Amino acid sequence: MHSLNGKTVVVTGHASGIGAATAAALTELGAVVIGVDRAAADAGPLVARTVVGDLSTSDGVRAVADAIDGPIDVLVNNAGVAATQPWRTVLSVNALAPRDLTRLLLPKFGPRPVVVTTASQAGFQWQRNFGRANSFLAIDDWDEALDSLADLPGIDQLCYSLSKEAAIVNSGNLAVDYKTLGLRSNTVSPGTVGTPLLPEFTATMGEAVINGAAAWAGRHAAPEEIADAIVYLASDEASWISGVDLPVDGGYGSLVFRTLVAPATSAAQ
Q1: What is the pLDDT of residue 255?
Q2: pLDDT band at 214 (very low <50, low <70, confident <90, very high)
Q3: What is the DSSP string of the chain?
Q4: Angle, nearest 10°, between helix axes 58-66 and 97-105?
Q5: Share of the chain above pLDDT 90, in %
Q6: Buried/exposed 27-53: b ≥16 CB within 10 Å, e otherwise
Q7: Which of 160, 178, 232, 252 is catalytic?
Q8: Whether the Cβ atoms of residue 76 and residue 36 lie closer than 8 Å to each other
Q9: Residue 252 annotated to the active site
Q10: What is the side-by-side order of every strand in the sheet holding 32-37?
Q11: Among 92-96, 193-197, 233-237, which is the least confidently predicted range?
């Protein structure tokens, strides 16, 4: 993927896990990586520059965008939190921040902009829930957007899956709405991954779900395996791929479809 040599790439959540693996892979390929994270970290060889910022608020996202000089070539919306955080924080960081950071950085992109967003297999019902996610994303004001979901039963438990459904829908919207600018936008949806967030996912989703997925697949994914997919979608080698949600889960999503989604769909017919 020599096409990334010399490209400027913004990676949010670069300090650990999938973000760190992505930043390292991009740097190795010759990209100039601007890392964004909520705390100062030793950039080491991973990034050329670090922007410290808070992606949990609208003002924080704007401050991050203001701190990034163009032109940039690729934005990797990778920062995310688990449902151990308050539900408003989860939806803010995982869904509203990617939406707004992308919008704010659009004028700073060079030709043929590329956006890759880290979603999740937890958002696998995005098509079924497209209307709800799209309505949420259509509300510009963060407080109003979040208030629109406040009365949803079980929001504390559903917030993570909702946030990832919204991230996938937002990515598809970008692919359609900005096609005339030459923009490509895709998501990757990992299953379970061995990152520092894994214990938090286990705490919120339950050991049976997390360990069951790993047992079926044979193991948790390594962060580098998810990074490989992100880097590919960021490269010119993926020049005709846009509007796609790419599962990177060892096949677990197909198991979920066959055992849960397909039977439920058949029963409803």
Answers
A1: 85
A2: confident
A3: -GGGTT-EEEEETTTSHHHHHHHHHHHHTT-EEEEEESS----TTT-SEEEE--TTSHHHHHHHHHT--S-EEEEEE-----TTS-HHHHHIIIIIHHHHHHHHHGGGEEEEEEEEEE--GGGTTTTTTHHHHHHHHT--SHHHHHHTTTTSTTHHHHHHHHHHHHHHHHHHHHHHHTGGGT-EEEEEEE-SB-STTHHHHHHHH-HHHHHHHHHHHSSPBPHHHHHHHHHHHHSGGGTT--S-EEEESTTHHHHHIIIIIHHHHHHH-
A4: 30
A5: 84
A6: bebebbbbbbbbeebebeebbeebbeb
A7: 160
A8: no
A9: no
A10: 49-52, 32-37, 8-12, 72-77, 109-118, 184-190, 245-248
A11: 193-197
Structure tokens at 143: 């407080």
CA neighbor of 26 nearest in space, from 206, 213, 227, 176: 227
